[in-house]
Amino acid sequence: MPLVNMKPVLREAMAKGYAVAAFNLLDFSTTKAMIKAAEELEAPVIVQVSAKTIKYFSHKEVFSWVATVAEDSPSPVVLHLDHCKDLEVIRKCAETGWTSVMIDASDQPFEKNLELSKRVQEIADKHGCGLEAELGQILGVEDDMVVTEEEGQHLTTPEDAVRFTSQLDLAAFAAAVGTAHGYYKGEPKVAFDLIKEINSQTHVPMALHGGTGLDEDTIRRCIAGGCAKINISTNLKHVFVESFTGFHRDNPKDFEPLHLIDAQYQACKALFKSKIAEFGGTGKAAEVLSKAA
Ligand code: 13P
User: Fold this and answer.
1) Given a cut of 60, is residue 150 above it in pLDDT?
2) What is the pTM of this model?
3) Which residue among 46, 132, 181 has the greatest number of ligand 1 atoms within 8 angstroms of its CB, and so is best to mutate?
């Protein structure tokens, strides 16, 4: 089926108390694996792409992969641009048919962040896309940009969150709530009460960044607080590399590339299925479609 807008998908997830898994694709094979995983679980899925990945491929190539696989799938699929600072890239994706975009101007002062987010809102509205915007800086490395603890994580305050989201019409709100991109060095310090407070005051589904390495209880509490989109990237990168190199290590004489590609595909699909199920997406495709249509 055609790609779907992220806004109704996440509103439905928040209302029903689960989160839609969002995975950062790496190539065609991972794209297909995430949509097939969703299909096998009758779940919605968000296929998202980092700005670095579309610089390597292109917004058109990526669109054609995702739209082609989604077209033959009964599962609702969102194609989302993750953390983007470049309005021209955002515009091109929206014009090409992507169904959600993220403006990340969180390194800017509040007013500038809001102004840029409003400009992207216009682009998103014009093309029928969902919009995600970020307030407060999330720790870790995203697209080679590093936000360290020394710089201090500026947790988003509920007051700022309300001031920001009330002037936008967001599909997803990314707030700094203690999670970080990449593997956690110690115990993650997730501010569960803050998530709940922000969500109860804004009523906007929250995007939980830094999903890799959070245990099931943490995920459960984040979803209960209002996180309706959970991002997984680092975990996938590791499974992608290790399944490929692991197959070669175990089968050093096998030079049939399709065997390696399939081992990698199956390992990635297993990861996607376990995360979709853990976040509560199993069996939700039909309900989502009735709301997103
Ligand atoms: P991880 O790399 O920690 O999984 O975070 C992904 C993410 O939030 C992408 O925006």
Assistant:
1) no
2) 0.96
3) 181
